[in-house]
Amino acid sequence: MKEVPLFRLLACLTPYRLINLGQVFISLGISRLSGRPVSWGFPLVLTIEPTNRCDLACPQCSTGAGLLRRPRGDLPLALYQHILQQTQRSLLYLLLYDQGEPLLHADYMEMIRLAKTAKVVVTCSSNGQLLADFNKACELASSGLDQIILSVDGLEESSYQIYRQGGRLERVVAAIANLRKAREQLRQKTPRICLQFLVMKHNEHELERVRDTARCWGADRVLIKSVQVRSPQDADWFLPLAEKYRRYTFGSGRLTVKSRKSKICDRLWTGCVVHQDGHVVGCCFDKDESALLGRLSEQSFITIWRGEALRHFRRRVAGSCKPDICNNCTHGLALYQ
Ligand code: SF4
Q: Which residues contact 93 (CB under 8 A, 6 or more apart)?
């Protein structure tokens, strides 16, 4: 929730949501003090994956590199509505993206509109290629979206295309201009445009120019983020030389995430992730559903949220025998600057 302005979240509070927020954080506090997970309340934050298809081939992304083991597809609008109906009473913040490019979903604008009708703050994260079309940018701005994160990992076409394979920087620059123009025409300040820059070996020399260039293009904010890699070979290829921007330490041929995790992972108290086929997992690091918590085709969301699978997963994460996904987790590490 850190990347969203606090006033936007506060504006969505209702008495029920406020009480629920209190229940969630009190149970989290008790769990931390006692070391024994107890959870009260309902999700404050939800990540929903509209699609796990993508139009680019970014080499360190499971989807882009073709390594995602789940079937590809799109979340049916009816299932999305069903999830929203079951969660909107407590929900404050919706991340309407996970794996894949969310704007490829045919009903994406409608999904945002439905969440905004339910007074939920919505963020989209996109490679921005489709927003080079002004009509699409206008449609997105009209949907009520609060914030968009656009991935721009190079300030020149040559550096950008090393990672965003299949994409063109000029299209993202056009996307920013289109969104600004649409905002002006609609006389509104949203969506706030955040430019996300993954620092890698081939683009770290551009870091000092990022903020000025982003301002020139029309972005409202810059998010500098460290890159995730899968192997020591990839680390050698992609990790920047600047220690500050390396997510990992490297020793004895192994990569170790610099994360300083609390024993109790707050993500499992505040929300969870729904994949495009209605499968529910605990967090976005579980890309291949190694700890599947339930299927919305078989159970209601609330049954899954209150179910033994999630309780068991919380205990595993808090225990000494953590799931594999936690060993490569960066939650708790300051990724954005
Ligand atoms: S990978 Fe583990 S520690 Fe990290 S956010 Fe997920 S559950 Fe929490």
A: 1, 4, 9, 12, 44, 45, 46, 120, 121, 122, 123
Structure tokens belonging to residue 201: 């070996």
* 111/319: higher pLDDT: 111
Report DSSP letters for 60-107, one per residue: TSTTTTT---SPP-B--HHHHHHHHHHHTTT--EEE--SSS-GGGSTT
Q: Which tens digits make up the pLDDT trace of 241-282?
A: 998 888 888 777 788 888 655 778 999 999 999 999 999 999
Residue 152, beta-bridge partner list: none
Q: Which atom of ligand 1 is nearest to the CA of 266?
A: 8
Q: Strands 192-199 and 121-126, how do they pair? A: unpaired
- Alpha carbon of 291 to ligand 1 centroid (Å): 11
* Integer Cα distance of 39 and 312 in angstroms: 12
Residue in 45, 47, 95, 267 to alter for ligand 1 test, most ligand atoms within 8 A of Cβ: 267
* Distance, CA of 314 to CA of 294 (rounded, Å): 14
Distance 258 CA to ligand 1 centre (A): 14
Helix (H) and strand (E) counts in the chain: 13, 11
Beta bridge partners of 280: 274, 294
Asked if residues 99 and 63 have their Cβ atoms less than 8 Å apart, the reply is yes
Nearest to 257 by CA among 200, 163, 332: 332
Q: How far apart are CA 198 and CA 224, in angstroms?
A: 6
